[in-house]
Amino acid sequence: MPTAVVTGAGGGLGRAIALELAGRGYLVHVTDVDADAAARVAAETGSGTRSSGLDVRDEAACRAIAAEAARSHGSLDLWVNNAGVLMTGDAWTQDEATRRTMIEVNTLGTMNGTIAALEPMRAAGRGHVINVISLAGIVAAPGEVNYAASKHAAMAFTLGTLFDLRRAGIEGIELSAVCPDGAWTPMLEDKLDDPDAAGSFSGKLLRPEQVAAAVGKLTERPRPILILPRWRGLQLRLLDLFPRLTLRLLPLAMSDARRKQRRYKKLIEAGRWPKS
Hints:
Elements: E1 3-6, H1 12-23, E2 27-32, H2 35-45, E3 50-53, H3 59-73, E4 78-81, H4 96-124, E5 127-132, H5 145-167, E6 173-180, H6 186-189, H7 208-220, E7 225-228, H8 230-241, H9 243-269
Parallel strand pairs: 1-2, 1-4, 2-3, 4-5, 5-6, 6-7
Helix pairs in contact: 1-2, 1-7, 3-4, 4-5
């Protein structure tokens, strides 16, 4: 059976990804900074699943998890960097500790997990690293600027590392960046009234299971970038290409985002969304 490590899998999207991969026949190693939460998801996932506490900011700990997975099962086939944090607000209002936390978890955590996974994968000549980025990794997101900066760095690292693998003649290892629109996870559940988070509600709010299913399909047909939904990527990239026009449209865009955010709040509070 192929083996997979998923970070930040104690709940939300990470939990959904762990369950999806287990359903696809993977032996999943569930990791989370909350070891108890990781253990609960592992128990839910089924036999053969393992769990560990893991702070992705700790490079040595990431390397230990990767080495253990390869040693215990003979290979490490898949590593999913899902752990992430989001704090909203104007860039000048967030203190250095807040900025550092997002950079260390979202950027360095992705780097640490990727480098850790590549060690046994390079030795085996095969493997797949999937980095859950965000649409914030391809657009400057108002109200989420420092978060977007950390995700832009993670995106550059993912694609650049893939380019370097090919430059080194390594063809059997894939790297993928998954960029979903806002997903209804604990990261957003407390932000229905937060105007700085309106951008995360401006498109199509996704359920964790939808993103997890796309991640599962990506294991079968790897690609460098997967944007969910695809049309949002094109829309947001156009905004980045024409920043002067975007500045003019920004008041209308943010007003529409707040309208959608309020609409989702009403649907969620009424129990009409998400529907099973």
